TrEMBL record:
Lineage, highest ranks first: Bacteria, Pseudomonadati, Pseudomonadota, Alphaproteobacteria, Acetobacterales
Residues in the signal sequence: none
Organism name: Acetobacter aceti
GO biological process, one term: cysteine metabolic process
Full protein name: Cysteine desulfurase
Family: Belongs to the class-V pyridoxal-phosphate-dependent aminotransferase family. Csd subfamily.
Listed cofactors: pyridoxal 5'-phosphate
GO molecular function annotations of the record: cysteine desulfurase activity; pyridoxal phosphate binding
Enzyme Commission number(s) of this protein: 2.8.1.7
Keywords on record: Pyridoxal phosphate, Transferase
SUPFAM superfamilies: PLP-dependent transferases
Function: Catalyzes the removal of elemental sulfur atoms from cysteine to produce alanine. Seems to participate in the biosynthesis of the nitrogenase metalloclusters by providing the inorganic sulfur required for the Fe-S core formation. Catalyzes the removal of elemental sulfur and selenium atoms from L-cysteine, L-cystine, L-selenocysteine, and L-selenocystine to produce L-alanine.
Enzyme class: transferase
Domain (Aminotransferase class V) ranges: 23-391
């Protein structure tokens, strides 16, 4: 993998911030976009844009073909059937869809099981379901190293009351890669369905929903080098068929009278209103681009970057990495003695370095870790070891400034 060639495909990486070359280490929040994605979306808006599905004219038919081709592309990417791909705005909406729709099939006395390391997007919808439907919400603990406590996970499943497990495939704070296939097997053995939040994991590793054996898988386009405003829910066909619609409106119906409506077949049943047409095309292009590089190369590059970061960053006085999971993706949260995380991020920004600081939409995890905030550096396919070195050297100067 030629990093220089890859970086040349991202026009924003040549920008300067506060007079310094941009060092973008915030890809876990949202990744930058390669030319090919920007061009595909621009080209569609310039030459092939119209509303889809309902038009009988040439332009609408071409736009429909492009939108549905992206659905087929996502299906082949995940290893599912195209009818099992529901486009949403993002992972958050996809999880809310499952919580509202599949959740409506749950009964009081049943439970949903999440973990201590969930993003708010995979916590708050289940709290809302709990309060609405009277189900129980259980939380599987993590170890001090930041791995899921599998013994506790098994105990929480053991009474057979858990109807659904909803758990991250990769923590956005700790970088922890959860043992997804084992979690799926344990959930199924206990009679539960399982949803995996792949928002972070899909960026770093090949996902095959058939091999994983999951029942639901969600991810968002903007972390995968695609646009914002487009996300994906994959679910097994029989589950989608049994679930009621999430929202009502145009495009999700077969017929409507004043007395009743008949829903369209899946996936249209879950896509009310005009969808994110151009964004779906951008996502399909982003997937093509990622697969043209290959997950093997991406994974090897990420492992090299992460190992390098874990070697040079702890040399910064007062620096502490948060968590030590058995398997980690390209995300490193950290603290530095005597310097608040927000000050770290602000001063790094003055040097052209973009990191994230705060609770990372995981407040309960912060409480579990005994922290109020961390700074977080996260890597993309375009990240270099030299950028990590720049981060380390700048952190040393920040530390000297405060001590």
């Amino acid at each position: 993998m030629n990093i220089a060639d890859i970086r040349a495909q991202f026009p924003i990486l040549s920008e300067k911030v506060h007079g310094k070359p941009l060092v973008f280490l915030d890809s876990a929040a949202s990744a930058q976009k390669p030319d090919v994605v920007i061009d595909a979306m621009s080209q569609m808006m310039r030459s092939q844009y119209a509303n889809i599905h309902r038009g009988l004219h040439w332009m609408s038919e071409r736009a429909t073909e492009a939108y549905e081709a992206s659905r087929s592309r996502v299906a082949s990417f995940l290893g599912g059937a195209r009818e099992e791909i529901v486009f949403t705005r993002n992972s958050t909406e996809a999880i809310n869809l499952v919580a509202y729709s599949y959740g409506s099939l749950l009964k009081p006395g049943q439970a949903v099981l999440i973990s201590e390391m969930e993003h708010h997007a995979n916590l708050v919808p289940w709290q809302m379901l709990r309060d609405r439907a009277g189900i129980e919400l259980r939380v599987a603990p993590i170890t001090d190293e930041g791995d899921l406590d599998l013994d506790a996970y098994g105990r929480l499943l053991s009474d057979g009351k858990v109807a659904l497990v909803a758990i991250t495939h990769m923590s956005n704070v700790l970088g922890t890669i959860t043992p997804a296939e084992r979690l799926v097997t344990m959930a199924h053995d206990a009679g539960a369905k399982i949803l995996l939040d792949g928002s972070q994991a899909v960026v770093h590793r090949k996902i095959d929903v058939q091999k994983l054996g999951a029942d639901f898988y969600v991810f968002t386009g903007h972390k995968l080098y695609g646009p914002t405003g487009i996300g994906v829910l994959w679910a097994r066909r029989e589950l989608l068929d049994a679930m009621p619609p999430f929202m009502g409106g145009g495009d999700m119906i077969s017929s409507v009278t004043f007395e009743k409506s008949i829903w369209a077949p899946i996936p249209a049943k879950f896509e009310a209103g005009t969808p994110a047409i151009v964004e779906a095309v951008g996502l399909g292009t982003a997937i093509d681009w990622v697969e043209s590089i290959g997950y093997e190369a991406i994974g090897a590059h990420e492992a090299t970057l992460t190992a390098h970061a874990l070697r040079v960053l702890p040399e910064v006085p007062g620096f502490s990495v948060v968590g030590k999971p058995k398997e980690r993706g390209g995300v490193i949260s950290f603290t530095m003695d005597d310097v608040h995380s927000h000050d770290i991020a602000t001063l790094l920004d003055r040097n052209g370095i973009a990191v994230r600081a705060g609770h990372h939409c995981a407040e309960p995890l912060m409480h579990r870790l005994g922290l109020t905030a961390t700074a977080r550096a996260s890597f993309g396919v375009y990240t270099t070891e030299e950028e990590i070195d720049t981060l380390a050297e700048t952190l040393k100067r920040i530390r000297q400034f405060f001590v």
